[in-house]
Amino acid sequence: MGKLKFSRKIIISILILFVLSLSIQSNKILFYPSSINIVKGENKSLDISFPFFLDISQEKENVIEASYNGTETIGLKKSYKLNGIDAGEAEIQLKLLGFIPVKNYNVNVINRPEIIPGGNAIGVRLNTKGVLVVAVTDVIDTKGHRFSPARDAGLKVGDSIIEINGEKVQDAEHVVNILNNIKDTNIKIVVQRNKAEFVTEAKPIQSIQDNCYRLGIWVRDKTSGIGTLTYYDKNTNEFGALGHGIVDVDTGGLLSVEKGKIMNAKISKVEQGKKGTPGEIRGVFYETDNLVGDIVVNSPYGIYGTIKEDNIKFIQNKPIPIGFKEEVKVGKAYILTTIDNNSIEKFEIEILKIQPQLKAEQKSMVVKVTDPRLLDKTGGIVQGMSGSPIIQNDKLVGAITHVFVNDPTKGYGIYIEWMLEQMNTK
């Protein structure tokens, strides 16, 4: 009986270990992307652990060549090598114990894109779609009574007013003119909130302050600032910059784009970053003679648009290949940015940490400025450097997005892959 109990304990222990291993590997599989990109002429290794096996029998001829690399087997882990033969698509399948289908992988063999890294200082001017509500207040009428037409109509901070009585709103001054022409008549307002539109009604109140008709709102119609160009694609004339979206300083919401421009900027002053106080690059730009391109997308991962062909001279660098997120490594790299003399310079950094991301996020990697010249001039990463391209192993792998407030020598970067996806959202 003792031996039987001991044997049962061994069997149960083995089953528990098997189930635990299966659970761990299953979780890894669920979070592994179903689409795998391989550059033509290059290869990628996949490490698969027991009890899973990769079925490479479904590979598409002349697209990929898949093989089991027995020499790289470690313990219960097997290494498979996928070679990109020619541009196209293929499918491979993961199986439990070699015969139960678990997950399909779409393998895309692609030509490695080449784009031109930026580093140019740019002025950004963005006109919002309609006007953005930044505050909702009361209105005191000519008899001293207090009203809040906007609040009664359901308007909130962060809403965009798109139309009033069928008339498309152009800017803040236009809203004032419309209300004073309509006076104390009920109006229909088209409002955009979280990308969805709805219609509400309100009645303007004549204010005791200046006899003008008001809804009880403060609005903003434009914003501007300094940033850095990340890349330019000469095949499409498209650009990406900043690595993060433009948000309203009061509402914190992402601004919708109606008309946006980027302009050539001249650096006028650099304020060093210090612990607890982010530094800043200050510059000047004039739309009349420095217009470079149009902004068509303001996403959480940067601003995007097209550069006019007449302004290609604005682009100083040559095309280089991009590096995919799985190719980014901890170690040395450099950024391109403009901090003085309006010329793009190269500064050394170190990539300290890499985040395994399956979808677009701003904080893909942690970087640290190591270049003595940049540290002496700026103290590290400062406002205005957002969008500075990150280059590693002669490939454009990402862009600077944020600075650590308590340590300006460090900051975050975003993978270039996430930025290149954003023009498809327009």
- The CATH topology of the largest domain is what? Thrombin, subunit H
Number of strands: 31
Poorly predicted tracts of residues: 22-27, 71-75
- CATH superfamily membership of the largest domain, which one? Trypsin-like serine proteases
Can you summarize the main beta sheet? Answer: 6 strands, antiparallel, barrel
Summed over residues and divided by their number, the pLDDT gives a mean of 81
Q: Bin the strand percentage.
A: over 45%
Question: Would you identify the CATH architecture of the largest domain?
Answer: Beta Barrel
Bulk shape:
globular
Tell me the name of the CATH class of the largest domain.
Answer: Mainly Beta
Question: How helical, in percent, are the residues?
Answer: 10-25%
Secondary-structure class: mainly beta
The helix tally amounts to: 6
Question: What's the gyration radius in Å?
Answer: 28 Å
Sheet with most strands: strand arrangement: 9-18-19-24-23-20
N-C termini distance? 73 Å
How many distinct domains?
Answer: 4
